[in-house]
Amino acid sequence: MNEANQICGAERRVVALCGGVGGAKLAFGLQKVLGSKLHVVINMADDFEHLGLHVSPDLDTLLYTLGELNDRQRGWGRAGESWNFMEALGQIGGETWFALGDRDLALHVERTRRLANGESLTQIAADVAKHFGIAAHLWPVTDDPIRTIVITPEEELAFQRYFVARRCEPAVRAIRFDCAEKARLAKGVEDVLQPEGLRMIVICPSNPFLSIDPLLAVPGLREALRAAGAPVVAVSPLIAGQAVKGPTRKIMDELGIQATTATIAAHYQGLIDGLIVDAGDLPDGIGLDISVQAVPTLMTDDESKTRLAQDVLAFGDRLARKADEGR
Ligand code: FO1
């Protein structure tokens, strides 16, 4: 990479599309490398009203992870939590299937108050991120309602009912994103995806069906990604055909989709220029017009998250140079 490009590269923004615990891990690694040059577009379709509170699980997982406040075993919620609220709630017959820690509760109560006051999820996310000392910029994909609905043979389940109450065990027949067609792409997301000063776009190793598809369902996002004029690099959420955590593989089996590098590439067909796969998953002739790079993708600690982030950035920069040479 020539000197000018290198300096310019370091100064330019990287936009990451993210949802869930796996996505948050790579976002953490990217923040370690990029600091305030990282902009994260967040899935908001896992949100739901619970006990009269507006809960935003993917936004909160990112806030806690980037703020280094997260419980690293569970992946979601805060470290050092206490559960007095849940205990007291149980004593009076309240709904305890969705665990809200005492510290976590403060975020839901304060977000609910501010939403009732007319503030947007974008404003609330930015303000909480500031209070948590987070360097990256967090962008809810939309400030309008959007809800993932999981269709099973017996019934339709709101996302958290499927994911938490039923522990992902009902078979998935289809997934729908209610209100997506009316959701407006948040202004901040449109702004950060403008070509000027944009280095690359990263699709984090989140569940493609439950975390990335609801992002892409917001009208205008796919077009904005294509018009951004920067390489789009996805990181496969599978390692040796298995998900590191969560129901990605199970859902692929239930949807009749083979859990291979090729099907992940096909899922993002037309959107991505490059796909990062795990070192052991060298593709058998993907046959798609994208570049594939095999590196270790299992993120078990801060070092491996940062290393994967560096590999992703180097791969994206190589794709950019190839595109420049091609012009
Ligand atoms: N996941 C669970 O499996 N059980 C829970 O009780 C639970 C509570 C919870 C509370 C706040 C929050 O931000 C996330 C929470 N999650 C819980 C995780 C959450 O359901 C998932 O991380 C996302 O919705 C999917 O990415």
Structure description:
There is one protein chain. By secondary structure, this protein is an alpha/beta fold. The chain has one domain: Rossmann fold (3-Layer(aba) Sandwich). The protein has helices spanning 3-11, 20-34, 57-66, 84-91, 102-116, 121-131, 159-165, 187-192, 208-216, 221-227, 248-254, 261-267, 302-326, and strands at 13-18, 38-42, 48-50, 53-55, 137-140, 147-151, 156-158, 174-178, 198-203, 232-235, 238-239, 242-243, 274-278, 291-295. The strands form 4 sheets. It has a 7-stranded parallel beta sheet, with helices on both faces. A hairpin with a 2-residue loop joins strand 11 and strand 12. Helix 2 packs parallel to helix 3 and helix 2 crosses helix 13 (302-326). The radius of gyration is 19 Å and the shape is globular. The structure holds ligand FO1. Ligand FO1 binds next to helix 2, helix 3 and helix 7. Ligand FO1 is lined by residues 20-21, 46, 55, 57-58, 60-61, 76-77, 98-100, 104, 160, 163-164.
Compact overview of the structure:
The chain is α/β, with parallel strands linked by helices and 327 residues long. It has helices at residues 3-11, 20-34, 57-66, 84-91, 102-116, 121-131, 159-165, 187-192, 208-216, 221-227, 248-254, 261-267, 302-326, and strands at 13-18, 38-42, 48-50, 53-55, 137-140, 147-151, 156-158, 174-178, 198-203, 232-235, 238-239, 242-243, 274-278, 291-295.
